[in-house]
């Protein structure tokens, strides 16, 4: 449960600046930050660094992470 709350908090932090701007570079940076954070969060517990969430696989499947726009 704590990991879910922490993930949502990281998502909100990563997308806050992007939601206030029309700058696509900022959107990309927030997406990369979130993907990197989630990859580290859901890595293999044995330390093999085999992420369950893989940014390249998500983009390949058309599920690339994009910041939400509020307002």
Automatic annotation (TrEMBL):
Residues 1-17 form the signal peptide. Keywords: Signal. The keyword Signal applies. It comes from the Eukaryota. This is Neuropeptide F. It comes from Dracunculus medinensis (Guinea worm).
